[in-house]
Design goal:
The protein is an all-alpha fold and about 450 residues long. It has 16 helices and 2 strands. Helix 1 packs across helix 6 (about 145-175), helix 5 (about 110-140) packs antiparallel against helix 14 (about 375-405) and helix 10 packs antiparallel against helix 15. Belongs to the sodium:galactoside symporter (TC 2.A.2) family.
C-alpha cells in the first residue's frame, strides 16, 4: 500500500477532527470518575446502586451505538455525518450539565432513578455524536500511517480532555465553595467546553472529502453477520473490551484513592497534569514506533509497561517525610513523589495502547474495504463504541460491588472514615484488577493479524 505523501491530510483537517475529542473525553471521563463519587457523597446513594445507575444507560448503548452507526451509514451519501455530530454535540452538553444540577432529592432511591434517566438521555446523545465521529477517522485516508496521525492528534486533544475532565473538576468544586454550588459551577464550565469543542468538529468537517465505497445493504443483524467475518476486528474488539473494563474500574475509584488512601485529594490536579503532559510529550513516540516495529507490537509494549506500574499502586500509602515543597508552599512527601512518577509512566503507556487500539480499529475497517470492496464504517464504529461503553458500565458496577463487599460506607455529608478493608478494596480496584484485565486483553490480542 502507498504510504507516501499522496494521501497526506491537511493539518487543518486533522486539527478540526481532533479537537472534538476534547469534549468527547470530558463526557467520557468526568461522569466515569465523578458520578459515583457525586452519588455516594452528595446524594447518599449506596455504592452498589451507583454502579447500577451507570450500568443501565451503558447496556442500552450496546444496541444504540450500532443502530446509530447503521443509520449514519445509510444517510451518509445524502446528508453526510455532520447532522449527527451537530445534534449529538448539543444533546451531550445539555445532558452533562443536567447530571450534577440537583442534589435535594427526597431519598437516595429517587436520586438514583433521576440520575439514571438523565445519564440515559445524555449517553444516547453522546452515541449520536461519538459513533459517526469514530467512523470519520476510518474514512479520511486510505493510508494506515495517516490514520495513525489522525488518531495521534485526536489523542492529544483527548489528553487535554483528561486534564480538564478529571484534573479540573475537584479544583472547580472547591473554588466555587464546595457542596451543591461547587458541583453546579463545575458542570456549567465543563459542559460549555464540551459543547464548544464538539461543535468545532461538527461544523469544521463539513465539505471534507471522505473515502467513498459501496456499503452493504440490510438490517443491523445482516451488518453484524458481515462484521463477524472480519477476524482481526473481532479479536481487537474482544481485547479492547477486557482492557476497558479494567480502565473503567480504576477510573471509578480515582477520587476514592486520593481522598481515602493517599489522603491528598489536592494532589489530583497535579497528578492529572503530569500524566496528561507526559502523554502529550510521548505522542511523537507513538507516531515513530509503529513505523519501526508495527502497531500491534507497539500496543503490546505499551500494555506491558502499563501493567507493571499499575500493579505498584497496591503498595500506595499515606503520609511520609516531606521531601520538597511546591512553589505555592505545598509539601510533597516521598509517597507523593512516587505517585507523580507513576503518573509519568502511565501517561506514556496508557496514551500509547489506547491510541493504537483506535488506530488498529481503522485498519480493520480498511482491511474490510480491501477484502470485499465495501465497508460500513458506521457499523464498525458503532460496535466498537458500544463495547467500549459496555466496558465502562461493567467497570463501575464491578467497582461498586467490590467496594460494598469490602465494607465501604456511603454518606450524604462528604468524606467519612472508612475501614481498613474498604481501603484495601479501593486499592485492588486501582491496581490488581485493572492490571489483570490488561493481561487478559494481551492473551486475546496475541492472535491479532492483518
Amino acid at each position: 500500500m502507498n504510504t507516501g505523501s499522496a494521501h497526506r491530510l491537511p493539518t487543518s483537517v486533522v486539527l478540526r477532527y481532533g479537537v472534538g475529542q476534547l469534549g468527547a473525553q470530558i463526557f467520557r471521563d468526568t461522569p466515569a470518575v465523578l458520578l459515583p463519587l457525586f452519588m455516594t457523597t452528595m446524594l447518599g446513594v449506596p455504592a452498589w446502586l451507583a454502579g447500577i445507575v451507570v450500568l443501565i444507560p451503558k447496556l442500552w448503548l450496546i444496541a444504540c451505538d450500532p443502530l446509530v452507526g447503521l443509520w449514519s451509514d445509510r444517510v451518509k451519501g445524502t446528508v453526510g455525518r455532520t447532522p449527527f455530530l451537530l445534534f449529538g454535540a448539543l444533546g451531550t452538553a445539555l445532558g452533562f450539565l443536567s447530571l450534577f444540577l440537583v442534589v435535594g432529592y427526597p431519598n437516595p432511591w429517587l436520586a438514583a432513578i433521576s440520575v439514571c434517566v438523565i445519564f440515559f438521555l445524555a449517553s444516547t446523545a453522546f452515541s449520536i455524536y461519538s459513533v459517526p465521529y469514530l467512523a470519520v477517522a476510518a474514512e479520511l485516508s486510505p493510508d494506515p500511517f495517516e490514520r495513525n496521525r489522525v488518531m495521534v492528534l485526536r489523542m492529544i486533544f483527548g489528553s487535554f480532555g483528561v486534564l480538564v475532565g478529571v484534573g479540573a473538576p475537584q479544583l472547580l468544586i472547591v473554588h466555587f465553595g464546595g457542596g451543591a454550588d461547587g458541583w453546579h459551577a463545575m458542570s456549567w464550565i465543563l459542559g460549555s467546553i464540551c459543547l464548544a469543542s464538539m461543535l468545532i468538529t461538527a461544523v469544521g468537517l463539513r465539505g471534507v472529502p471522505l473515502i467513498g465505497v459501496a456499503w452493504v445493504p440490510g438490517n443491523l443483524f445482516r451488518q453484524i453477520k458481515v462484521v463477524s467475518k472480519n477476524r482481526p476486528f473481532l479479536i481487537l474488539l474482544s481485547a479492547s473490551f477486557l482492557s476497558n473494563i479494567g480502565q473503567a474500574a480504576s477510573y471509578t475509584v480515582i477520587g476514592f484513592v486520593f481522598l481515602y488512601v493517599a489522603q491528598a485529594v489536592w494532589l489530583i490536579p497535579l497528578y492529572i497534569l503530569v500524566m496528561a503532559s507526559s502523554s502529550l510529550a510521548a505522542k511523537p513516540i507513538w507516531l515513530w514506533l509503529p513505523r519501526k516495529i508495527g502497531k500491534a507490537r507497539s500496543y503490546v509494549l505499551a500494555s506491558i509497561v502499563w501493567i507493571a506500574v499499575t500493579f505498584s499502586w497496591l503498595f500506595l500509602g499515606a503520609g511520609g517525610d516531606e521531601m520538597v515543597h511546591l512553589p505555592w508552599g505545598q509539601a510533597l512527601t516521598g509517597e507523593h513523589l512516587l505517585i507523580l512518577l507513576r503518573s509519568v509512566v502511565i501517561g506514556v503507556a496508557n496514551g500509547g495502547f489506547v491510541l493504537l487500539a483506535l488506530s488498529l480499529m481503522t485498519d480493520t475497517v480498511d482491511y474490510q474495504r480491501r477484502s470485499t470492496g465495501a465497508a460500513n464504517e458506521g457499523v464498525f464504529a458503532g460496535l466498537f463504541s458500544a463495547m467500549e461503553k459496555l466496558a465502562f458500565a461493567v467497570g463501575p458496577l464491578l467497582s461498586g460491588i467490590v467496594l460494598s463487599l469490602f465494607g465501604f460506607q456511603s454518606s450524604t455529608q462528604g468524606m467519612i472514615t472508612q475501614s481498613d478493608g474498604a481501603l484495601f478494596g479501593i486499592l485492588l480496584l486501582y491496581s490488581v484488577i485493572p492490571a489483570l484485565m490488561q493481561i487478559l486483553a494481551l492473551v486475546v490480542f496475541r492472535k491479532f493479524r492483518l
